[in-house]
Amino acid sequence: MSDPTPGIHHVTCIAGDPQRNLDFWVETLGLRLVKRSINQDDPGTYHFFFADAEGTPGTSMTFFPWENMAQGKVGSGQVSRTAFRVPEGSLDFWEDRFDEYGVGYEDRVERFGETVLPFADPDGLPVGLVAVEIPDDDPTVPWTAFVPEGHAIRGFHSVTLRLADPEPTTDVLRAMGLDEQGTEQAQGDTPGNRRTRFAAAGPVGTYVDVLPTVQSGRQGHGTVHHVAFQTPTDEDQQATRKAVRSLDVSPTRQIDRHWFRSVYFREPGGVLFELATNGPGYDSDEPLDDLGGRLVLPGRFEERREEIEAELTDVRVPEPPAAEADD
Fold first, then answer.
1. E strand or H helix at 223
2. Is the sign of the CA dihedral 208, 291, 19, 37 positive or negative?
């Protein structure tokens, strides 16, 4: 029997222009590019990984910049918003920063006793910042090249799942070890649609909110491709795989993704879930000080470097200011 999942491992989304994606997530939001690689199922497309300073599990937002794909639409069977933790008292800083950088954001809302600042990235991806107390022993390591430590993003807070029929999905979440925390009519949600919150075992990427909807969705720019949950060891992963198989889902075999090992399945509501191990980690093939410093082509793809690089759009990683930001 495995331990319950500690929480979200990473969230993978679909973007358009790769340079715009890099500029926003690194310079505007202050996340570190910890891995610059390719989509291993479509090697002519980048795969960018943005995270905290060390690529800690529970902090990495990743993107496939499929430039020729159409704009998506958030609806049933999708992650409708991904939220990050920021330190209490930092939302004023973020509103000022969004004004400076021309980022569209909405009025703050209260959900389950916490304050959320909803906004969207340049592709229209719904995102949010949630003000929380960051404990002294928090496992995340803030990256301060663009944003001061006292305001820096500190990993995931939650994902919201939009579902036509939530009940089968909640059975899967329970099988993965998430506990139901409560239900409320949250600010900003459609009247009559009550949000149910589930909590994982760890301090980062803890929450999954489930929200009913009758609106259909369409995958494309500005939508989430899949959400990955931590199964720290191979044994944890296989135990969780076995648990969800009993609920009429069909998980894949384990697939080696070079920085972690993965199992995928589409939960009953249509959202693609991944179970990801915590190792080997993003620093398994690059020094910690140089994460994201080069295009990494895992395994057999290195032999095709010249061909792959010729297909990829040239990009420039934003350069941090000469000195680190500080409080």
1. strand 223-230
2. negative
Domain of 34 in residue numbering reads as 8-311
Cα–Cα distance measured from residue 82 to residue 79, given in angstroms and rounded to the nearest whole number = 7
Task: With respect to residue 24, please indicate whether it lies within any of the assigned structural domains.
Answer: yes
Q: Return d(Cα 53, Cα 58) in angstroms, integer.
A: 12
**Peptide bond preceding 280 in cis form (omega within 30 of 0):** yes
d(CA 130, CA 19): 27
Strand order in the sheet with 207-212: 109-111, 114-120, 126-132, 78-87, 156-163, 207-212, 195-199, 179-184
Number of domains the chain is built from: 1
- pLDDT tens digits, one per residue of 251-269: 999 999 999 999 999 999 9
Cα separation, 43 vs 193, in Å, equals 40
* Structure token digits, residue 51: 């995270």
Q: Minimal CA–CA distance to 176: which of 235, 243, 270, 233?
A: 243
326 located within any domain: no
The encoded tokens of residue 227 equal: 């959400």
**Residue (of 270, 253, 249, 272) closest to 262 by Cα position:** 253
Q: Which residues pair with 261 in a beta bridge?
A: 256
Distance CA(24)–CA(119), nearest Å, equals 13
- The neighbour count for residue 46, using CB atoms within 10 Å, is 23
What is the tens place of the pLDDT at every residue in 201-232?
999 999 999 999 989 999 999 999 999 999 99
The rounded radius of gyration (Å) of the Cα atoms in the chain is 19
DSSP assignments along 300-317, one per residue: GGGGGHHHHHHHSPP--P
Residue 306: CATH number of its domain? 3.10.180.10
Whether residue 195 lies inside any domain: the answer is yes
Q: Is 244 contained in some domain? A: yes
